[in-house]
Amino acid sequence: MMRITAEAVSVEIGGKPLLDGVDLEVRPGELTGLIGPNGAGKTTLLRVLGALRPPGSGRVLYDGKTIARRERPALARRLAYLAQGGEAHWPLRVERLVALGRLPHQGPLGRASAEDQSAVERALQRSGVEHLRARTLATLSGGERMQVLLARALAVEAEALLADEPVAALDPHHQLRVMDLLRAEARAGKAVVVVLHDLSLAARFCDQLALLHRGRLLAQGRPESVLGDRELASAYGVRVLRGMERGEPFLLPWERLEAGERP
Ligand SMILES: Nc1ncnc2c1ncn2[C@@H]1O[C@H](COP(=O)(O)OP(=O)(O)OP(=O)(O)O)[C@@H](O)[C@H]1O
Known about the structure:
The chain has helices at about 40-50, 70-80, 95-100, 115-125, 140-155, 170-185, 200-205, 225, 230-235, and strands spanning about 5-15, 15-25, 30-35, 55-60, 80, 160-165, 190-195, 210-215, 215-220, 240-245, 250-255. It is an alpha/beta fold. Strands 5-6-7-3-8-9 form a six-stranded mixed sheet, with helices on both faces.
C-alpha cells in the first residue's frame, strides 16, 4: 500500500511556471483522475509524482517519506509509470517489451524468474494483448500499442500505477475495459492515478479528481464537486450537457464559451 503526497509542488522552466503550489494526496485503494486542458501541467505533475522529475520547490512524499537518490531503484519496484502514447518503432517483440516491466525486480544479471514469467503472462492477459505477443511493436496500431504499454506497466505489479492518457487512442469498448481495469487495480489496494480528457469517464470511474488549470489546482475532491458548470467553464471554456444513467453521471461537452463568458 502506498500513499503519495505532493506538498506545495512548483515547477518552473525558463521563468514560466508549469506547476504552481500543487497539494495533492493520492491514496491507496482509490482511482485519482488528473484532468485539465491541454498544457495545464497534468503530465508534469504525473512525472513529479512518479519521481521522474524533481519539483523546483515543494516535495513529494511516499508513505510520508521523501525518496533519496539511492532509494530510486527500490521505488521503481513500487511504482509503475505509463507514459503518454508516443511513437514506438522499435523492432521489439511485444512479450519482450512487457517483460521489461520486470527489470526493477531482477538482479544485476537480469535473469527472469518463474515469478517474473507469470507476472508477464498475467499482464498480457489482463490487458487483453496475448494475441499480439509475438508481434513487433512497430507493426501495432496506436490503440494496440497503448494496451501493450499498459501491460508493461501492469507487469511491474507495483503498489502504485501512474497512467498518462491510457485511453486516448482507444475505441469506446477498450476505453471502458481499461477504466474497469484501473478501477479494479485501485480496489485491490493500489494507488492509481490516471490522466484523462474524457469527462464522463472521469465522472464515472474516479474516486477523486484533481482539475489543473495553468499549473494550479482549480478544484479537487469528489467528481461531483469538481465537475461543476463553473469549474468546467473556467478551466476548459465549455458548457456541458449532463445526465444520469442508473445512478451514474455522464457529461457531454456541448459548446465553446467565448472569452467573455468564462467565469
Ligand atoms: N521543457 C519544456 N520547456 C518549455 N515548456 C515546457 C516544457 N515541458 C513542458 N512545457 C510546457 O508546460 C506546460 C504543461 O505541459 P504538460 O505536458 O504538463 O501539460 P498537460 O496538461 O499534460 O497537456 P496535454 O493535455 O496537452 O498533454 C505546457 O504548456 C508545455 O508546453
